[in-house]
Amino acid sequence: MSLLEVDNLSIDFMVDGCWLPAVSDVSFTLERGEVLSIVGESGCGKSVTCLSLARLLPEPPARYSSGQITLAGEAVLQSSPRALREIRRRRISYIFQEPTASLNPVFRVGDQILEAVELREKGKNNDPRGKTLELLSQVGIPEPATTAKRYPHELSGGMQQRIMIAMALAGDPDVLVADEPTTALDVTIQAQILDLLAKINHERNMAIILVTHNLGIVADMAQRVVVMYAGKAVEAADTETLLRHPAHPYTKALLRAVPKIGHPKETLATIPGNVPSPRDFPPGCRFHGRCVEALALEKDSTCATRAPEWREIAKGHHAACHCLK
Predict the structure, then answer these.
(1) If pLDDT is split at 50, 70 and 90, which confidence band does 263 have?
(2) Neighbours of 42 (CB within 10 A)
(3) pLDDT per residue as tens digits for the range 136-157
């Protein structure tokens, strides 16, 4: 059994009295020690999917309309409130993209990490303050004892993100979800945070789900990739296969849009059109209105009316598209 199994997960949100689909029939697995990346445009359901792994979405307005989530053998969607607290305490932790919004501005950062240590260790650690300083040291904070006494506003964005990582590691979780962890940081600090996550993955054999827009980060860190579009998974494969031999037209379009050193262009490649609203998702493929391959192969009518099946096109390589050979 995989460490994490997501099977045909669907999530809806109540908006103006109607249930709108945010995530539809998403499936993937995560192995211990693996780095899995979830990529796609803003609003495609990446963060909603990740929040659902610990059932963090408020119900209502959210509802889990179908599917299963199994984390370390536990059925998350059927877990009691007490079991969910244990899952969140020891099984899975999160790092969010904006550390300033995630840290409490009126408490010293050391006290915030200490609280996480005490909650997750439940008295097992005889020296929680020592554990706090140890975590600060592990995430590359200089002078941990001094930094622990500072407030969030006294630290840079990169330091704040390291504090968030220390809090996430306090319970030694099985899964670390990094949701756009470098978005608000400059390029140099981004590289440092990514190096830190790679070090954590290697030293702790911790599984990481990395949510990102940046395919360069995917190529550098992830072993497998899930591509999402408009709430659905459209392709999944190991990283090398997906980057070298993409199958789905949306994945191909994403890769074409990446600027390449040594190939200057006056105009960067773009994907025409817009992502459809959840109020107007077509009954068929949700990408068909922007898909040049569907139009070229004269399959636009099929794509518009019949949803493609999720199928294995090569060993370990899955996609959902009518245009696949």
Answers:
(1) low
(2) 9
(3) 998 888 899 999 999 999 998 8
210 DSSP β-pair partners: 37, 178
- Which of 98, 89, 9, 1 minimizes the C-alpha distance to 52? 9
Res 48: pLDDT: 93
The ranges assigned to domains in the chain are 4-319
Handedness of CA 293, 298, 304, 308 (dihedral sign): negative
Integer Cα distance of 39 and 257 in angstroms: 14
**Which CATH class for the 4-319 domain?**
alpha beta
| pLDDT for the residue numbered 280 | 87
Alpha-carbon distances of 312 from 173, 220, 309, rounded to whole Å = 31, 25, 10
Neighbouring CB atoms inside 10 A of 155's CB total 19
| Residues in contact with 285: Cβ distance below 8 Å, sequence separation at least 6, in sequence order | 291, 294, 303, 304, 307, 308, 320, 321, 322
Phi, psi values for residue 49, rounded to 5°: -60, -45
CA angle (241, 6, 234) in 5-degree steps:
45
Q: CB under 8 Å to 196, separation ≥6 — which residues?
A: 139, 140, 162, 165
Q: Give per-residue pLDDT as tens, 30-78.
A: 999 999 999 988 888 899 999 999 999 998 899 999 999 999 889 999 9
User: Residue 325: its pLDDT value, please?
Assistant: 66
Structure tokens at 270: 């773009």
